[in-house]
Amino acid sequence: MQKAGVKGETDLSIPPNPAMGDFAFACFNLAKESGANPKATAESLRVKLENLKSGIVEKIEVAGPYVNFFLDTGAIAKLAISDVLKKGKKFGVGEKQKEKVMVEYSQPNTHKEFHIGHFRNVCIGSVLVNLFRSSGYKVISANYIGDIGAHVAKCLWYIKKYQKIVPPTNKGEWLGQMYVEASRAIEENPELKSEAQETQQKLEAGDKELIKLWKETKQWSLQEFKKIYDLLDVKFDAWFYESEVEKPGKNMIGELLKSAVAKTGEGGAVIVDLKEFGLETFLILKSDGTSLYATKDLALAKLKFEKYKIDKSIVVVDSRQSFYFKQLFKTLELAGWKKDLKCVAYEFVRLPEGAMASRTGNVVLFWELYHDVFVSVLKEIKSRHANWKLKIIEKTASRIALSAMKFDMLKHAADKVVIFDKKSALSFDGFTGPYVLYAVARINSILKKARFKGILKEGYELLSAPEEKRLVLMLANFRQVVNEALEQYNPSTVARYCFDLAQQFNDFYNKHSVLKADNKNLIKARLALSASVKQVLENALSLLIIETVEEM
Fold first, then answer.
1. Do 12 and 27 contact (CB within 8 A), yes or no?
2. Could you tell me if residue 292 is inside a domain?
3. Between 390-410 and 366-384, two packed helices, what is the crossing angle to 10 degrees?
4. pLDDT at 327 > cutoff 80
5. Nearest to 414 by CA among 548, 297, 315
6. End of a domain among 299, 323, 350?
7. If I label 213, which of 138, 301, 501, 538 is the partner at 20 to 30 A Cα–Cα?
8. Which pLDDT value is given to residue 53?
């Protein structure tokens, strides 16, 4: 049986077969408490509940140790549909919470290119922000930009050493190429590594010429990132930069040394011994005095709570950084920093050909992927709607392309590797974004033909078909889906719900006519049901930062 997912109600479930009821209560735990037989307990409970039956519960039956509840379709349809139509975009929004949460995500490095691994991070982080906000929390969405460090120094060293000419356009992409070439040059000639390290030391020491080049090139990357965020409809409330927390991080390391949380290791590097916690040795400052990610992340954690007065900090990171964050959080704990820190790790994105690595240049860039998908959709729409204006065609193509890309990133649980396949993601059949968008577009067409006003005062009892009942129950369960996704930090729960609801509507539509039903009242009731499905699909897709289209 499928668990209903209500926290604290693990005995309540949804039977796999509707003939067994709409909800079932397992009496195993209840019987254990009373020392009675589960089947006898179920029958005893049924008798007691019979007297409490309301207009919503049509009948109660016992099947072995289970008490099965059958709901009245008309009654729940009236409650669910009227609630959806009344609340509209606010349907499914939870009650206001006191806690303030910060979700840090995206975190691209300047002087590197934005690839589809970064894209998955943005998708997951954005949905977590939306889930918290929809659940009534105060949320600060934050981005932490890696604008200094070894990778930046390596890129600047290469540009200066080989006097590379800056192109007039696509400067952000060019920087990424310079980083790849720099990495390749050092790999082929290891003796050059010391030159790049010296560049980092000079940069951190404030070399004026390097600082000028760094500031200029950094802006090229940031401009590129912001174009992508605008396209994805992603906005950040707070921006952090590694360069801003480098010195505070070094100061914090000094404090850790004084308190004996940290110590100087062999060669002069600063470490935290975490072996007793099964976390090995944590390196927090290089032997040459230059900073590491840990140097800055220690200060960043402190800055978040002090500046924004948050109650919880969530960081979305590549799964390969999971162990590192365990070390970081444990170090903060040993330093007396007992705050609510959470790391949400996701697996990387593969192509059918294999994995990616930015150091070797074997990456799929976001812009390349988006353009490829967009062109494919554009061609298809032009063939279907030759009479559409170009502006409408391009807008629709962009939304469908982004829906395919975002949905494909989000339909997998974060701990699953994504193998992105363009053909599969763009399919109008199966577990895809375009499939869900098409269901919304189909309902738009129905409502437009009927000139539906969005109001229904009576006639809900006419919705008696099994397909209609399943739709109504799914609508009523939307808030619980959001709760479950948030509790598990799992956006794929919402993506699955979108697909299941769209699939259930298509099943209903294929078996029952909406506009040619037996009578006018049934037509109105089915229009109200269809409008409610559309609204909930739009609300759910909005959580996934996916915009719908009027027509496809």
1. no
2. no
3. 130
4. yes
5. 315
6. 350
7. 301
8. 65
Domain match, 147 and 219 both: yes
**What is the amino acid identity at position 541?**
L
Q: Identify whether residues 331 and 395 lie together within a single domain.
A: no
- For residue 449, the enclosing domain spans 366-543
Q: Do 336 and 375 belong together in one domain?
A: no
- In this structure, are residues 356 and 420 in contact, taking their beta carbons and an 8 Å threshold? no
* Bridge-based pairing state of the strands 100-104 and 138-145: parallel
Is 376 strand, coil or helix?
helix
- Residue 235 located in a structural domain: yes
Q: Please check whether residues 61 and 138 belong to one and the same domain.
A: no
- The answer to whether residues 154 and 235 belong to one domain is yes
State the burial class of residue 424 (Cβ atoms within 10 Å of its Cβ: 0-12, 13-18, 19+). Answer: middle
CATH number of domain containing 335: 3.40.50.620
| H or E element in which residue 484 lies | helix 478-487
DSSP string, 11-58: TEEE-SSGGG-SEEEE-HHHHHHHT--HHHHHHHHHHHHHTT--SSEE
In 3D space, the residue among 343, 439, 278, 441 whose CA is nearest the CA of residue 121 turns out to be: 343
pLDDT at 3: 40
- How many residues in the chain? 552
Tens-place pLDDT, residues 146-204:
999 899 999 999 999 999 999 999 898 899 899 999 999 999 999 999 999 999 999 98
Return d(Cα 290, Cα 293) in angstroms, integer. Answer: 10
Of the candidates 241, 302, 249, which has an alpha carbon nearest to the alpha carbon of residue 107? Answer: 241
Longest dimension (CA), the chain: 86
Q: Is residue 39 part of a domain?
A: yes
The Cα 394–Cα 405 span in angstroms is 16
**Looking at the domain assignment, is residue 126 inside a domain?**
yes
User: Cα 225 to chain center, whole Å?
Assistant: 18
CA 39 – CA 31 distance, rounded (Å): 8
Domain harbouring 51, CATH code: 3.30.1360.70
Identify whether residues 336 and 380 lie together within a single domain: no
Taking the mean position of all CA atoms in its chain, how far away is CA 188?
A: 39
Structural domains counted in the chain: 3
Per the confidence metrics, is the pTM higher than 0.70?
Answer: yes
Residue 385's pLDDT band (boundaries 50, 70, 90)?
very high
- Locus of tokens 């840090």: 104
Q: Please indicate, yes or no, whether residues 208 and 318 belong to a single structural domain of this protein.
A: yes
Q: DSSP letters along 86-128, please? A: HHGGGTT-----S-EEEEE---PBTTS--BHHHHHHHHHHHHH
Quote the mean pLDDT of the chain.
92
**Six-digit token string for 262:** 């940290």
Please tell me whether residues 417 and 482 are part of one structural domain: yes
CATH number of the domain bearing residue 510: 1.10.730.10
CA 526 to CA 443: how far, in whole Å? 11
